[in-house]
Specification:
378 residues, 7-stranded mixed beta sheet, globular, alpha/beta, Aspartate Aminotransferase, domain 2, binds pyridoxal-5'-phosphate
Length: 378
């Protein structure tokens, strides 16, 4: 790559070249046995993923969104239930409770780590109790951008209020908190294998992790139309929510280079921290954690500075993206469900946050170019 070639925001082709032969073998094996649904690769992937994060059970599913939905269906979450979740996250987190007839209750985030603010979570439970219309039922805590949420604090508050805890780990599989990989931080953990996530498939996919054998059995039933012990016994209303065998084969090849990918992402984040830290606000590291660095987001002084920077970066061949330009309570689809509570941090972040390219195949030289382009435009 020359000094002027555009830098890719994500480079799945370069990653594919690093595992070309094992990937081809994995895919050819599936083409030979033709068990495209729940083939042996699915079971192999589930046991490897469970071992990787130290969870007792892993159940793969069709997407991260379906993982969230199955987890809430298994708890019987529905009309009249309040599901607490951050206002500053991807849309899927709020979509799922609404699909089940429950009500999302938006919680603000920490201005430095961008993670759910535990004090505001406690305040929002009190809001719902005071209003008396909804039953506080569940928390969907999001590990945003690759870093873990403050699970010790969130779990303490949730358990006092008797809430089910679900970790939306779609962006952060591979990250750890207090030496433990994410997957056991909440009662259930949902992750996504969307191609751009740190562990991405070549299509949609997701997984659920839990310590409970009963919950895992329910997840398996729900992902296959609510089936019982025989295929034609339907015990509950479920969905068609399985992971394809071909996607499991791709993920098995990717798992072999996952540690190297995470180390490469951390190396890029360290370059950004060192070069940019005294000119713009860089993401504060969550104490005692490692990040999967799905996204590296900086904070500018205001929206005008962000606009100028994005224009300058584009001219220098450096892509950037805004996650998220609108907090969820401001989205037309969700505004009606919002109780009107102020969420000032989420609104502030949406107005001046900017994500820089970070992926395992970004070279140090390219990261330096990103830093020079940022420094020249702030
Ligand atoms: C990507 C994402 C999801 C949804 O995952 P899909 O596999 O695309 O359905 C859910 N929550 C968060 C925070 C995400 O980033």
């Amino acid at each position: 790559m020359s000094d002027h070639d555009p830098i890719p925001f994500l480079d799945l082709a370069a990653q594919q070249a690093r595992m070309a032969e094992p990937l081809r073998k994995r895919i050819e094996t599936v083409l030979r046995h033709c068990q495209f649904i729940l083939g042996p690769e699915v079971a192999e992937l589930e046991s490897r993923l469970a071992a990787y994060c130290g969870a007792a059970h892993c159940v793969t599913v069709s997407s991260g969104t379906d993982a969230l939905q199955i987890a809430l269906m298994a708890e019987g979450v529905g009309p009249g239930d309040a599901v607490f979740l951050p206002a500053f996250t991807y849309t899927a987190t709020a979509e799922v409770p609404l699909l089940l007839g429950a009500t999302p209750v938006f919680v603000d985030v920490d201005p430095r780590t961008f993670q759910v603010d535990p004090a505001h979570f406690a305040a929002r439970i009190a809001d719902v109790e005071r209003a008396g219309r909804l039953k506080p039922r569940a928390l969907i805590g999001v590990d945003l951008f690759g870093q873990p949420a403050n699970w010790p604090a969130l779990n303490a508050i949730a358990s006092r209020a008797g809430l089910f805890t679900l970790d939306d780990c779609a962006q952060s599989f591979g990250a750890s908190l207090a030496g433990q990989r994410l997957g056991t931080a909440a009662e259930a953990t949902a992750t996504s294998f969307f191609p751009s996530k740190p562990l991405g498939a070549y299509g949609d996919g997701g997984a659920l992790f839990t310590e409970g054998a009963g919950r895992a059995a329910l997840y398996r039933s729900l992902r296959t139309h609510g089936e019982g012990t025989t295929r034609y016994e339907v015990l509950r209303t479920g969905m068609n929510g399985r992971l394809d065998t071909l996607q499991a084969a791709v993920l098995l090849a990717k798992l072999d280079i996952f540690a190297a990918d995470l180390a490469a992402r951390e190396r890029i984040a360290a370059i950004y921290d060192a070069r940019l830290g005294n000119r713009v606000a860089i993401p504060e590291r969550v104490a005692g954690s490692t990040s999967a660095w799905a996204i590296y987001a900086i904070l500018l002084a205001d929206g005008a500075e962000r606009d100028r920077l994005q224009t300058g970066l584009k001219a220098a061949g450096v892509p950037s993206a805004i996650y998220y330009p609108k907090p969820l309570h401001r989205q037309p689809a969700y505004a009606a469900a919002h109780d009107g509570a102020a969420l000032p941090v989420s609104e502030d972040l949406a107005g001046r946050i900017l994500a820089l390219p970070i992926h395992p195949d970004l070279t140090d030289a390219a990261a330096e170019r990103v830093c020079e382009a940022v420094l020249a435009n702030v």
